[in-house]
Each structure stands twice: as C-alpha cells, then as structure tokens.
Amino acid sequence: MVLKMIVDVCRPHDFLDRTMDRYIRFFPCLSDPVRRSSLGLKVALVMLHLVYAGILFAFYRHLIEEAKIKPWYTASYFLLFVATLIQYFVTSCSSPGYVLDAMRAANEKDNAFRKASKQPASSKNVNVVVTIDRNHPEKTVPADVTSWTKIVMDLYSPGTLLRNFTCSYCHVEQPPRTKHCHDCDRCVLQFDHHCVWLGTCIGQENHCRFWWYIFEETALCLWTGIWYISYLKADIARSWWKDAIVIVLLITLSIALIFLLLLLLFHSYLVLTNQTTYELVRRRRIFYLRSLPERVYPFSKGVCRNLYEFCCHRGNIYNLEPLPSAQVIEERSRPYTCSDIMRCRCC
C-alpha cells in the first residue's frame, strides 16, 4: 500500500487521471472535457467575485458600521452582487437560438397544419405559395421541398442560389444573419459571437440577456472600485500588506472595468443599429452585405423600433428578418437632412 502511494506521487499524471476517473464515476456529466472546462470557468468567476467582495468587507470595517446606519446602502450592493451572478448563470445556460430547433418547430407546425386541414403532406405536381412578410412579393417555390426550405427561400431575394445559404457543416438552409459556430457545432440565428466566459454563443435568443449581464457587471465593478478607493483614502490605522493587496486588486478591477465599459458601449451601438458583431467585423465575407456601403445598416428599422424589438423580444423562433429590398436599401443610403431629423427618420 505504501509502495503504491509512493509510485502515485512519483507519477502525478497517473495519479490525477485515477482521481479524475473516480470523480467521473460519481458525476458522469463531467466526462465531457468541454463541460469540465465550462464548469471550472464558472466556479473561478464566482470565486473571483467572492474574493473581491470578501476582502473588501474583511479589511474595511467601516463598511460594517455603515451597514448598521444605512442598511439599504449595503443591501443594494448585495442585491446587485447576487443579481449579477444570477444573470451570468441564466445567460450562460440560455440557448442563443439554433437553426435546427427553429427548423424542427417550423416543420412540426407545418405538419400539424396539414393534418388539421386534411391536405397531403407533399405533391410534386403542385406549387405552394409561402408569404413571410407583407412588404415582400409572394414567391412560388416547388412543393416537394420542406417547409423550412420554403420559409428560408422567401427570406432571400429572387435568384439567390440554394448553395449560397446552405451550411456546409449542418447541411441545413440558413436564414439571413445566421452563422455556423465551430465551438458549439451548430448554426445560430443572428449569430453575434461565441463567448468563452459564458461558454455559449450569443445570438437572437440571449443577446438581450448578455447586454443586461455586462451592464450589471459594469455597475458592480464600478461600485466595488469606489469602495476600494474609499478604503485607501480612509484615515485609519492598517497594515502595509493590506494596502498592497487592495492596490493590486484595484488595478486589476480598473482594467476589467475599462474592458466592460468598452464592451457595453460597443453592444449598445450594435443594438441601436440592429447589427451583430459578426456582421460588423466580417461584412465583406457575407455575400448579401458585401455590396452595400459601409454606413448602411440594412436591418435597422430606426432606433426606437430596434430598441423595442431587442428589449421586448419574446423568444419567437419565427422572428426571421428577410433581406431588405433594393428600394429600402436605397432609402436607407440617403444622407440625413434637416427635414428627416424633424420627422424623426432615424427613429
């Protein structure tokens, strides 16, 4: 027994592998390396929040005294602290809106409608008309294709080849603003980016949650930084090593705050113009955007409408935006005039 322990110590990799196998035996969900990495990242982020807040209250005794005088002030901080962590886990566990889920739901709805109306599922000698948007003309497509293919074809302009919007990995038809994520190995509706900190993609279904998370995280970092500065400015007797720890934490907190502020401003700009990070960065690689001028936002419906759809989105997987017509693109390419501002054209 002693010899076995000595051998395990001498070979740490084997010892770690055996220990990991024992944990996986009791927790089968940790057998996936991606899940282990995501879980480890979540634990590290929670511990980081607890360290920053815990050291502050452990060193700054004045906060405890102030909590007795102004309990609402400290309670507000803890409420923001808990809300930020809850928002983090809600966003990380939420679906960004996968094309396969939308396709499955569309086909199921179409099959249920056909059964209810007692119509045949398909007919190769008949054409079916599918209308998605009243502003777009009706298109006639062959009826031997799936319901999802009809919906996606109606979102693109006439003459668009099927291979241009078919994913070469999932082999499904992608609606506009969709991209295949290689980390998730799925196509995401209104793909923005894959967030390694959350362990999930940011897309149509969780972009609003992501914005609120970075907003709460920014507010929490700012509030914590103010308290750290108040601790350093307080005229109280304390050890030098406490000051050193607080200064190091304040420097790292300031760097994180700058990053969060820039990220918040950037995504606020994307929300107001109805864009995604992928569309902004890879505009020249998207076949239906590369011919448009840089300052034209083809999917923008005005600031107020963009905000409304972003904040009041109910998670409807059929909220698929068609490509704007040439007339709409031309109208949005016009420069603003004084009359446009008076008529609130930008809104």
From TrEMBL:
Domain Palmitoyltransferase DHHC: 166-282
Spans through the membrane: 39-60, 72-90, 210-232, 244-266
Primary location group: membrane
A GO cellular-component term linked to this record: plant-type vacuole membrane
Keywords annotated in UniProt: Acyltransferase, Lipoprotein, Membrane, Palmitate, Transferase, Transmembrane, Transmembrane helix
Catalyzed chemical reaction(s): L-cysteinyl-[protein] + hexadecanoyl-CoA = S-hexadecanoyl-L-cysteinyl-[protein] + CoA
Family of the protein in this entry: Belongs to the DHHC palmitoyltransferase family.
Domain notes: The DHHC domain is required for palmitoyltransferase activity.
Location(s) in or outside the cell: Endomembrane system
Protein name (Swiss-Prot/TrEMBL): S-acyltransferase
Membrane listed as a keyword: yes
Signal peptide range: none
UniProt xrefs under InterPro entries: Palmitoyltrfase_DHHC, PFA4/ZDH16/20/ERF2-like
Gene Ontology annotations of biological process type: plant organ development; protein targeting to membrane; response to salt stress
EC numbers: 2.3.1.225
